[in-house]
Write a structure and sequence with these properties.
Blueprint (H helix, E strand, L loop, with lengths): L8 H11 L9 H10 L6 H11 L9 H8 L2
């Protein structure tokens, strides 16, 4: 079975840096929604919030490096 290449941590850090507009090291709902809108993926804010809540392990309402890495590993 062919498996897609896992992202290395530096690739995940680069993705986080690109999405993290306020520089706090985490991706919040507004940052993710802005990225999705720019990619012409029109999800409403509630859907983006649900996605973040689903993958937010520490419960702070944002995706940190570890949480983002787990999302991208799927």
């Amino acid at each position: 079975m062919v498996r897609k290449k896992d992202l290395d941590i530096n690739e995940v850090k680069a993705i986080l840096a690109a999405l993290d507009k306020n520089g706090d090291g985490k991706i919040d709902v507004d940052e993710l929604k802005a990225f999705l809108d720019s990619a012409n993926c029109k999800l409403n804010k509630k859907a983006v919030q649900t996605f973040i809540t689903t993958h937010d392990i520490d419960g702070d309402g944002k995706l940190n490096l570890e949480e983002l890495a787990k999302v991208l590993a799927c």
